[in-house]
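Our collaborator T.R. sent over the components below with a one-line note: 'Predict the complex.' Nothing else. No constraints on interfaces, no templates requested, no preferences about which chain binds where. So this is a plain run: every listed entity goes in together, and whatever single assembly comes back becomes the starting point for the next discussion.
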Amino acid sequence: MPERLLDCDEVDARDVAAGYLARRLTADTAAAYEEHFIGCGRCWPALQRAMETRAAFGILGTGVNRRAWGLAAAAVLVVAAGAGLWSLREPAATIVAMRGGTDALEVHASAELGALTASWSPVVGAERYLVRLHGAAGDALVERETSDTVITVAVDSLDPALRTGAMFWQVQAIDRLRQPLRRSPLTAASPLSPP
Amino acid sequence: MTQPDVAPDGDPTAPGTPRQAEPGADLALEYWERLRLFAARRLGSTDGADDVAQETLRRVGEALAADRVREPAALPGFIFRTAQHVCQQLDRSTDREARGLSRLAAAGPEADPPDALAGLIAAERRREVRHALLRLSGDDRKILRQLYFEDMEPEAIAREWRLTPGALRVRKHRALKRLSQLLDDRDT
Ligand SMILES: [Zn+2]
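Returned assembly:
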């Protein structure tokens, strides 16, 4: 429980968002800020923009060790491919037990005319589908939500540096409370990218 | 602020004053990304962030249906504590595996750890923001880089620019506003 709550002016005056992303805050201040931004319509968009900015500088080639990330992400991707899980790490058994059916959702992938397409059969009770296209290093190259059962991504819309290796689709059917109904294993996005 | 009138993770059958609770999809829309960030930062990686967000929303939905959150103003605090609880449970059960992975990673070359939070932003969005950043003035871009990427203390940035902390904040807001305008232009 945070010791005290922050207000918007204090968050701004102390650059708390930057401190939070940089992990400079004390545990108490970070918790106070978390409790604040979870409910604040002004500070949450500001934090999102700060995160996006941080992530974008990461691909401007200033400082982050991409090779280390690639190695680490590739390692967990192998674990995920074997386990067929949505998340890249085995979740707690208690949570698996509570979150309902995890029968595999089968994704059909194709690649033609410079576009990657994934399609799947409708899942009963599904409100939407969370779709991710992962690169070989585990990066989410594309992240979309759709109520359709097909999605197409133009290859030339992908970052040239990231689209050269194997790519994998992963689709999760969710209900209206975003609870998972079924999820697919990682599925090679084209015949050229072996699973 | 008053203490919320809630019982996080309590007995869902506990008695409460009946009320029209509508734990709908709005809850998920509003809190999904916030919970993913919360979880990714606490867990130190994006692995498991979706699971924490989903499990938190499930428990909160149950609590609303059972009328265990009586004041709307108490909802964010309740969500926060529920998410904290779910994170702790997940963290405990994955501790062993994480330690194993750390040992593997330690065997490799010395390197900065990957930034877990960057993984929450899809590559296509990162590219859009990068494109907008490249269209900012060099000064605006440098201030945002120092603040949000190089993790410099605001006081140190202000000293470098010979600005007061207040004046630096004004420059930061201006740079963020320009960035937002560039992104809005791109979105429309
Ligand atoms: Zn606020």
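Summary for T.R.: The helical segments of chain B are 25-43, 49-65, 75-106, 123-134, 138-148, 154-161, 165-187.
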